[in-house]
Amino acid sequence: MKRLTSEIIVDAPPENVWDILAEIPAYPDWNNSTRIVPDGKKPDEITYGLTAVRPNGQEVSWRLTGRMLDRRKPDLIAWRLGMPGFVFLSMAYTLTPRGVGTHVLFSAEVSGLVPRIFPNHFPNLLPAPMAGTLRALKRRAEVTGSRPAPVPVTRKKPRHGGPPPRRR
Fold this sequence. Notes:
This protein has helices at residues 14-22, 27-30, 113-117, 121-125, 127-144, and strands spanning 2-10, 34-38, 45-53, 59-72, 76-83, 87-98, 101-111. The protein is an alpha+beta fold. The relative contact order is 0.23.
């Protein structure tokens, strides 16, 4: 098993950072390094995709399906992805308060047959997308953290229960 980590300090409270990470459908709005798509029918199942660049400059895209393992507000979000028998990827964001900010540790553990056959494959591919995700998270949290949350618009229903009837 190979463990990779990337970390960053975000100038926002852990709750704000956790809220951004927990809103899986909004990832494309702020994160160009990886794609996480929830399954419409099973909320704990996701598809994780990324495009990594090999040292020779060649891009490698891959997608893995998996499931959310843990959502503990405000300190942890984790999932496990993979193809049974070939490769498993366990990923987690661990959030720790640091003054008024948050230390974010993004970790990935790679195991299975593929990492044993190609031991340098994932260690060379994952660090750049992981670091890119953390930089994008920092930008998102620090920009949205300084603005007040939007006030939801509530519309009152007409007292009579709907639009007036059509006249003939």
